[in-house]
Amino acid sequence: METHTGIESPKGVWWKRAHPTERMWVVIAFGWCMVLFAMMPLWHFKGGQNPAGVRYRVKPADYMRRTQEFIAAYKVGIDQGIPIVEPPPGSDIYLIGLSFAWQPILKLRQGTEYTLHLSSLDVNHGFSLYPMNINFQVVPGYDYGLRVTPTEAGDLRIVCNEFCGIGHHTMVGRVIVTDSAGREVAAAERAALTREATP
Ligand code: CUA
């Protein structure tokens, strides 16, 4: 009976040199890995891929209290039970992700910078601003302060893109961006249509 140990190689063909095309493939794959590896810091510094912002640890109860104070200070209306809040230009604004809603509805002004705070009170949610290409994880226990400047007026939707439970697909919020004069675009469009329709 033949035996072999760790010192003696087993007989067979496994030790054959790799075929030139296979070696070529390994070299190309390694080169590509290095390119992708270099892209990570490159995106960070050059690509505008990383948000400019700060992140703090926060207790969900404290974040809720701060957001409630914010809502109480700047509330201008209500839409289907969700308060509409119009904060002063340049201020800190707060948004809560909570199964399965976004609170409050933010009414912002075009061309004005705000610091948008995002946090969750329960599980991870995903903040996607439709139809913009923006996507953030909203994590309980962390307050993500993001400097944002709305560039276009409109009536936008926040879509949750992180599966958070049975009502995930219903978790839709709203952001209203008024034009630089503080007018709601949808309302202005409606007024223009009415004017056209009226002889
Ligand atoms: Cu919140 Cu999905």
CATH superfamily of the largest domain: Cupredoxins -  blue copper proteins
The CATH architecture of the largest domain can be given as Sandwich
Average residue pLDDT: 86
Low-confidence segments, given as residue ranges, are none
Instruction: List the domain count as a whole number.
Output: 2
Give, in spatial order, the strands making up the sheet with the most strands.
2-3-6-12-11-8-9
Tell me which ligands are bound: dinuclear copper ion
Distance between the termini: 104 Å
How would you classify the helix and strand content by structural class? alpha+beta
CATH class of the largest domain: Mainly Beta
| SS elements, strand count | 12
Helix count, per DSSP? Answer: 3
Major beta-sheet overview: 7 strands, mixed
Basic shape: elongated
Secondary-structure element sequence? HEHEEEEEEEEEEEH
Determine the fraction of residues in helical runs and give it as a percent range.
25-40%
- Give the C-alpha Rg: 26 Å
**CATH fold-level name of the largest domain:** Immunoglobulin-like
Short structural summary:
With 199 residues, this protein is an alpha+beta fold.
Q: How does the SSE layout of this entry go?
A:
Blueprint: H1 20-46, E1 53-57, H2 60-74, E2 75-79, E3 82-85, E4 92-98, E5 101-103, E6 105-109, E7 114-120, E8 125-130, E9 135-138, E10 142-148, E11 154-160, E12 172-178, H3 185-197
The structure holds dinuclear copper ion (CUA).
